[in-house]
Design brief:
The protein is 67% helix and 0% strand. It is mainly alpha-helical. The two termini are 13 Å apart.
């Protein structure tokens, strides 16, 4: 199952959202994972990311289910709220997110930048992006940045403080040219070949 989920993530990163959703649908139908397990959360997160990528906020909410959400789904829940123009609710979910790894710290910083951007607080956006840049460059994260905050990638340029920063941001911009970004309604219709009915079935299938 883990291999299939990783393949789905790769396809989503290559903008093959239809292929990713088909894999996730098959994994859900197998139901060989325990409810509430790490695999269960990975499957839910991947499905939510795909549904947001094609603009299906309603289906993403159904996939998440009702709150409260476990820590493993806090970022996914926050992304749904940001997509639905609810930055304050997204911020509430972040407050419950345990930051215990560099990737989690990066995700939190990027989400805080997006929330600040929704509130038109440019100073806060720059502050959170500077921290994100330090973490991402040090750890070598590229896909995570593009996935969580594709719309803010160009805003890293003015805050570069060294040639190394500029080189890293160039990598981000190249990746953003063909990588995935959460929620792009402009290309929503073209991104998936699944029918509306198939998407509804996917969102209603329980992860357990």
């Amino acid at each position: 199952i883990t291999t299939q989920l990783q393949l789905a993530d790769v396809l989503r990163a290559e903008r093959d959202v239809s292929g990713a959703l088909e894999i996730l649908l098959r994994v859900r139908q197998i139901r060989e994972h325990a409810p509430g397990s790490a695999i269960d959360h990975m499957l839910t997160r991947s499905t939510v990311f795909c549904l947001l990528e094609i603009g299906r906020i309603d289906a993403a909410r159904i996939t998440l289910g009702p709150p409260p959400y476990p820590g493993g789904l806090a970022i996914a829940a926050a992304l749904v709220e940001l997509a639905d123009n609810e930055p304050d609710i997204a911020s509430d979910y972040l407050d419950r997110y345990r930051v215990d790894t560099p990737r989690r710290l990066l995700c939190t910083s990027l989400m805080q930048a997006r929330i600040a951007d929704a509130h038109a607080d440019d100073d806060a956006v720059d502050r959170h992006l500077r921290r994100s840049l330090r973490i991402a460059k040090r750890e070598g994260f590229v896909h995570t940045v593009v996935q969580m905050a594709s719309g803010l990638v160009d805003r890293f340029l003015p805050i570069c403080a060294s040639p190394d920063d500029a080189d890293y941001v160039a990598r981000l911009r190249r990746a953003n040219g063909h990588g995935v970004g959460i929620v792009d309604l402009v290309r929503a219709a073209a991104a998936s070949q699944l029918s509306a009915r198939e998407l509804d079935v996917l969102s209603y299938l329980p992860t357990q």
